[in-house]
Amino acid sequence: MSTRTIAGQKNLQKINQAAKDGIGGSPLRPDGTLKVKGEFAYSSDLWHEDMLWGTALRSPHPRANILSVDVSEALKVPGVYAVLTHEDIPGEKYYGLEIADQPALAIDKVRYHGEAIALVAADHPETARRAVKKIKVEYEVLTPIVTEEQCLDPETHGYVHEPHEYKSHAYGNVCHEQKLVSGLGVTDEVRALADVVVSGEYEVGMQDQAFLGPESGLAVPAEDGGVDLYIATQWLHVDRQQMAPVLDLPLEKVRLTLAGVGGAFGGREDLSMQIHACLLALHTGKPVKIVYARDESFFGHVHRHPARMRYEHGATRDGKLVFADCRIVLDGGAYASASPAVVGNAASLGHGPYVIPNVRMHAIALYSNNPSCGAMRGFGAVQAAFGYESQMDKLAEALGMDPVELRQLNAVTQGDRMPTGQEIDAPAPVAELLQRVKDMPLPPPLDLEHLDVRTLPGALSNTSHGEGIVRGVGYSVGIKNVGFSEGFDDYSTARVRLEVIGGEPVAMVHTAMAEVGQGGVTVHAQIARTELGVEQVTIHPANTEVGSAGSTSASRQTYMTGGAVKLAAEAVRHELLERGRHRYGWTQTDLSLVGGKVVSASAGVLIPIVDLLGDDAIEQTREHHHRPTVPFDKETGQGFGHVQYTFCANRAVVDVDVELGLVKVVELTAVQDVGKALNPLSVVGQIQGGCTQALGLAVMEEIVVKDGKVRNASFTDYLIPTILDTPPIPVQILELPDPHAPYGLRGVGEAPTVSATPSIVAAIRQATGKALTRIPVRPEHLTDTL
Amino acid sequence: MRVTFSANGKPVEADDVWEGESLLYVLRERVGLPGSKNACEQGECGSCTVYLDGVPVCSCLVAAGQVQGREVRTVEGLAGPDGELGLVQQAFVDAGAVQCGFCTPGLLVQTDALLAADPQPSDTDIREALSGNLCRCTGYEKIMDAVRLASARTCAGKEHAE
């Protein structure tokens, strides 16, 4: 096997930093050097002798019955080794993250535009693509069920899935729902308690994760009848759990190794090409590589749920919230994916970080013939934040109050209860975050004397030299949960080994954590250095030879797998010190490992680790479980459902060309409480990246779907922020420790993506006076051309 | 067809190249230089940026046949003769400009070209020069830091040499 194939080992590099590079420092990424040299092996870079290329035939229709599939002409193409349909699947035909409702290859019908129907393996990717075009599919095209009204009237418009096939609590075309009532709920009597009531309807378009590294991997058939898959994913073990039944293999014969991952943001939480590559490899007996082209990537993963929301808020004359009511309708598309958990988040977090005595909420996800939606950074909290923060601004205006002061007046703090009844039992400095972001210096005003057209709305298009430009400022705050909720035990496993190599103590950390760019590998090494007092740490390739690390999502990896590394390292330290106590009769209770030595706070250096270890190795494996949570009550939404909360506040400054409807975000400031910054450089990088994806949702990014068909599956037509679209992003971090979390840390990655979008829209509203109830905001929303 | 060209100063030869193949495909799949990335295959993302006769281009938009007899320099050619990191590469690592790293090879080549043309670009110059290179992880702030750092080191190096 070529060295390029062994992705994990290729990407493995010994970290050789000083012991000062423990937690709280910002040592450089262990994979950084390989990445800047172009030598880091991403999943799309893998190669194997005799390798075939796989690709899929995808449906051009969002809803159709498949009358026949004829693969005979495709099989005749020279260089084609296999053409497979669902009939060739050896095991279970359905899989899914939470509900196994998705066929690995379409069976008799297609439910969304781009659904995979057949697979081809050939000796050149172009041969495979051409063979796909020779597959003849006879469709009976049906009218797609795509609007909320159509979905909720199945008697007239039909069902996306036959109700008798439901494998969950779905009904009609509702995939999942969650209700919530707290206090007195929202009744006419409660409404009468408010002096001011504001309501609004809000809409969020379908955002894409748009990670740069396309879905890809290499499946290698093994002599034992199993398969080895080198793959870019967010969770190796849950991939395997879904794959093995379809491949009709026991778990241990489906072995996964993490290849280099080019970003994820939720888009790799579901399976994409994993089963397909393995089916082709097992069928042909040859290694098979699949790499999606960008258009296929848009069809091949789930997106952020589009949402329609109706909010109503009531407050007293002095600004205290009296009640809040909300209905959120999320379009889940053809298959469930993570929709149930997204609904749970939307319902439980959908009234924001505010104290509200009386609350009602109803959140649902629909089955439709639109593209499937599931996990994306912010996960159900993003859509709602646009709704409740828009409402806060509307309420402030109705009351004649400062919008920041209104938020601060109603902000939750430690000891308050969420609408779910869950007490916030860790710092929740929402008012302080808002104050700090407000107090940060503003950028200089637009200087008409010294204009650089590149910094204006329209930028290089040279559309304005300052005329028609109006500046606006907006604020927002958001709340996100960390870790999996509602009773899910998403534990993480870590194995830590300490031994002497080349005369030095070296720690090896082995987890199945998917490093997708977030910097978990850096943090794991920092934790091992801090706990074991060593300089050298080796990160073992992530694979299924060690227990699950859970998903790289929900802002959870540093908390959960970082916590597991801490536990395993502590166990290794304990065993080492016990050995010393046993051998040398140490009686001190103040021992620690520092600078490669066993040190007593009272008696000084006792012995170098090297001498205590000798030729032995100490290895310990530990699981880290977060504190238990419970599912929310289906009717009342009550329950201790979340592990941890995280908060971010933003200020956006925008310049708007009010004649052309063009927006330039001038500055996007963020203040976030991170509990403890294990690696401040990475933490700031996460917050800036999260803010930028929020900027994309505010003014640019939307998968345009018309009658169930995706109209912009390319980077030419689906726009993500460039460096010219992105402003300076000043970040201030607070470190208020959470007593329940390892080192007091708080998950970081998602909160800014939740909170930043509404601040930008608020700033555009201030500049234009427009209501702006839909994101992304488009030029036609700003120029009365609608 | 057969295509011969110079890659990072060394002569390379690719056989059985299909006429529709891009320079990017030949680099990645035929001559063992997978450092240049394929993220969009239509010239929008810049991840495949390489030097072609000293000019940065999206290698996905260059037909393989067009490079016959020409000089290509990729991210793999930015390091020194003994594999030590080039100045721009080191700055990206030091500044925390690398997260997933998929955009990095293209950004490095584009930054290298920018600083060769203008060792002290303004922030707006940097943003304009890199506006054809998409990054989804960083929010670009650390990339700005990296380019400023590389610029400062370039200028310091020149002063030192003088």
From TrEMBL, chain A:
Recorded superkingdom: Bacteria
Cross-referenced SMART domains: Ald_Xan_dh_C
Gene Ontology MF term list: iron ion binding; oxidoreductase activity
Aldehyde oxidase/xanthine dehydrogenase a/b hammerhead domain sequence ranges: 37-143
One Pfam family this sequence matches: Ald_Xan_dh_C
InterPro entries for this protein: Ald_Oxase/Xan_DH_a/b, Ald_Oxase/Xan_DH_a/b_sf, Ald_Oxase/xanthine_DH-like, AldOxase/xan_DH_MoCoBD1, AldOxase/xan_DH_MoCoBD2, AldOxase/xan_DH_Mopterin-bd_sf, Xanthine_dehydrogenase_dsu
NCBIfam families registered for this protein in UniProt: pucD (TIGR03196)
Protein name: Oxidoreductase
Source organism of this protein record: Kitasatospora phosalacinea
TrEMBL record, chain B:
PANTHER family: OXIDOREDUCTASE WITH IRON-SULFUR SUBUNIT (PTHR44379), XANTHINE DEHYDROGENASE IRON-SULFUR-BINDING SUBUNIT XDHC-RELATED (PTHR44379:SF8)
UniProt cross-references to Pfam families, sorted A to Z: Fer2 (PF00111), Fer2_2 (PF01799)
Protein name: Carbon-monoxide dehydrogenase small subunit
Record InterPro entries: 2Fe-2S-bd (IPR002888), 2Fe-2S-bd_dom_sf (IPR036884), 2Fe-2S_ferredoxin-like_sf (IPR036010), 2Fe-2S_ferredoxin-type (IPR001041), 2Fe2S_fd_BS (IPR006058), Beta-grasp_dom_sf (IPR012675), Diverse_Oxidoreductases (IPR051452)
UniProt domain 2Fe-2S ferredoxin-type: residue ranges: 1-78
Manganese among keywords: no
Keyword Transcription: no
PROSITE patterns from the UniProt entry: 2FE2S_FER_1, 2FE2S_FER_2
Keyword annotations: 2Fe-2S, Iron, Iron-sulfur, Metal-binding, Oxidoreductase
GO MF annotations in UniProt: 2 iron, 2 sulfur cluster binding; metal ion binding; oxidoreductase activity
